[in-house]
Amino acid sequence: MKPDYDPRVLETSGDDVTIDDNSMYWRGDYLFDGVLGEERSDGGFEFLSFKDGVRDGPTGEIDEDGDLVFEEWYRKGHLHGISRVFRDDGTLLRATGNEFGVAIWTVDFEPDGETARPASVKQLSESSRRVVQRYRSRYPQLPPVLGPEHAGDITEH
């Protein structure tokens, strides 16, 4: 399945991108905004998106035909959104809703890639709940992760 963006077109040369001791990405004197990618020997392409020096936006891998192998969404440096894994034939295998790096729910798909099995909603440990609550108060502008009913729509993140 093709993404609704082309990471190869968005890719920025990473030759002058540096990482500081706080894991912030810089281009010269400015926090890095853009996509870093790497062509693989099999024709695939791996990519990472950044905004204000941290991972923000889609990260993943596409195959030689431009179809997604997997895709994760980051916000303000945290895995925050719907991650998806695809089968070799391009159909959706699994989607997981992540909030600040904590998996909230998972949906597995039948071999047709469209029929969703019942969602598995995670029972969070007390420490995981505290992590999510702490980051929710730190980043109130970030919306909660969409629910499992959005798992099959790759335009939803």
Low-confidence stretches: none
| Percent of residues in beta strands | 35-45%
Topology, number of strands: 13
Structural class: mainly beta
Largest beta-sheet details: 10 strands, antiparallel
By CATH reckoning, the class would read Alpha Beta
Distance between the termini: 15 Å
State Rg: 16 Å
Number of helices: 2
Overall mean confidence score, pLDDT? 94
Shape type: flat
Number of domains: 1
State the helicity in percent bands. Answer: 10-25%
Q: At the third CATH level, what is the topology name?
A: Outer Surface Protein A, domain 3
CATH architecture designation:
Alpha-Beta Complex
SSE succession: HEEEEEEEEEEEEEH
Organism: Glycomyces buryatensis
Protein name: MORN repeat protein
Would you mind describing this structure in some detail?
With 157 residues, this protein is mainly beta. The protein has one domain: Outer Surface Protein A, domain 3 (Alpha-Beta Complex), CATH 3.90.930. Helix content is 11%, strand content 39%. The chain has two helices and 13 strands; from the N terminus they run αβββββββββββββα. Strands 4, 5, 6, 7, 8, 9, 10, 11, 12 and 13 form a ten-stranded antiparallel sheet that branches. Strands 1-2-3 form a three-stranded antiparallel sheet, with no helix packed on it. A hairpin with a 5-residue loop joins strand 4 and strand 5 (45-51). The model has no long low-confidence stretch (mean pLDDT 94). It comes from Glycomyces buryatensis. This is MORN repeat protein.
